[in-house]
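writing this on my phone so excuse typos. first protein, seq and then structure
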Amino acid sequence: TIDLTINNSIQSGFSESICDGSVYTWNNIDYSATGIYTQSFQAVNGCDSIVTLNLTLVGNSSLPQSVCVVGIDSLTNRNRIVWERPLSQMIDSFYVYKETSVSNNYVKIGSTSYSDLCVFIDQNSNPSVQAERYKISILDTCGFESILSDFHKTIHLTINSGVGGAWNLIWSHYEGLSYNSYNIYRGSTPSDMTLLTTIQSNLNSYTDLTPPNGYVYYQVEIVNPNNCDPAKSINYSTSRSNIASNDLSSIVKLSENSINIFPVPTIDNITVKSEFEIVGMNYILVDNMGKIIREGVFNTNQEIINLEEVVNGIYFLEVENSIRTIIVKI
């Protein structure tokens, strides 16, 4: 509040926000529209007190929000969506949306409260398989949801062998913000990659003519020129692709015989167990007609799938990785 003495009067003002459709009552007068309102009061010292109310209505689409950056979370190897928190007492939470298998069709996959770190991990994503698009929205304290933001799309990297031992890198462009360059990283393990080169942002392929012998790992990165600070203390300014490698040993070994399902037949649950790495791989359970009964992502190498409500019959479990789809009959 700022008080100013002008011509024997005291002028002061304050601001309030209310939900669209609500009423703000001030000195027995109801206000229901955005505006600046003034009332005068007689003070005991003979001066008038002139008070101004700056009233704002908050409602649907009045709190726009945008994604800052999306990319791979190095700890979980899942897609990470990051945005900055606006300073507002009218925000209840943020909704995260993901594009379905139908282009431009988005479905809500989760939410975070206003007080949480503005970072969301898509636990059902598999960055090694494909790129994904994400949007977010705001739910205000009035219960209204804003329009969806513009989308951001992750980078998906693939490699194939070239002439003379070279490796060809091809990736999908990052979409959602402007950037000038791609950084390409290379290493002999996923944890020791260093910057190999930087190329123009209008290119999406590169050939490594002199790779080291043995296994080699690659990753592509863009840098958000505006930075991204969801907690006003942590910098999430980059987006990296999945890691692509010529080390296919675990994938080659994965076959119908390497996935063990028990008990079969079953009346309630099945346990899916593999001696090889299946964490992060997608699975679907389909019936004889191809209808999807269950779907999900393996969080461990031994997963329990509930089938209590599934009718008697023959089913097929399909496990996806970047090379092939393994189908096991149940």
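second protein below, same order as before
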Amino acid sequence: MTPNRFPKALLLAALLAACGHAPTTRAPDPATPTPQFGSGRRDEAYGLAPHGSGVYVVGRTWGKLYGPHQGDADAFLAKYDAAGTLVWGRQFGTSDLDDAWGVSTDTQDNAYVVGRTEVGSNTFDLFLRKYTAGGDLVWSQPVGTGGGGTGGGLAVHGSGVYVPVSIFGVASLLKYDADGTLLWTLRDHTHSDLRYADVALGPDGSVYLAGTDHDGMVLRKVTPDGGIVWTRQVLYQQFQNQTGTAVAVAQGHVYLVGNFQWWASGEQKVLVTKFGADGGQQWQEPYHNLYGTDTAWDASVDGSGNLYLAGYRGGGPHPSLVGFVSKVGPGGGPPLWTKTVAARPGAYAFAVLASPALGGLLTPGRAWPLPRAVTEVYAAGYALGDLGAGHAGDGDAFLRRLDSATGETLWTR
């Protein structure tokens, strides 16, 4: 989840009818991959969101990725189509450290970006930005001032933009309108150590928040006008250091994803707990290798209730850290597939997105005579080495599209 979740990111699956995805496009043959995108210095991708014919990616760069380098590190927003072609990229920042970890979209494909700007030694203010589908900045707003902010993603619904933050240690949910005006703030003064890590929206506009307090993982449901519907405390047996890192919601499927520390070895493992929209727990399942550490950072769910996890693992058969993406069925049980992103000396997957589309992607050897409903699955993160087709520098961001049925790589950028 990198700097403090570094926070989470994912967040919104567009409805099929509202997507307006372009007709089927053709992807390059994955046997002839292209280099991951990079500036020659460290570049990292942390968040994904769908648009009408592809995906937005956000992160940070220490070099000249999409424009002049402003300072220590700059935030970036990039738009790719479903075939992996860069449509445009924007790089922005101050003279200090800036990064972006969350992005979400509205029905006009406007992109909303949340991130942070350094205002002192290891002290940050948050920002919220809106861009048009063509890459023009509409507005930029500070979210909390005075160096007391940490965040956990964002989500967009017709009624507004939801940003979970912690300002001077108080967990808060902020709602903005499409013009960047703050509508209301929901503060939690009852849990002094509550930290939000992620946010997702239900089909009815309900807001679901994932986080952590002193007792472990927390899942909360909030109405569009800021009323708390229910809060669930989640623990897995008596394991230590249990943290909630992601929440994914679609059609009544509500997943809380987190991590816990294994007793004997101190290694970290992954926990998934599924709820209904009424807050009733349906099942709980640990997911991990027998040996080594597994960390889940992000999650997304498709219209059928399949859950996609992204994170990284090390130990056991992996001499260095590898990123991973796993697909879990709505009934739980073993993953339907798990794919790794490997590059020495390490690779990390920090974002995953399962987005419905009309048309889909034609790959070599396949032909669909008519457009059909498909699920586009994307993963993003960064690799400290070559993913197979060239390495730009210190560490490169990557964007990968996977086949939703098999997990096979369609392309990597």
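The first helix runs from residue 16 to 19. thats all i got for now
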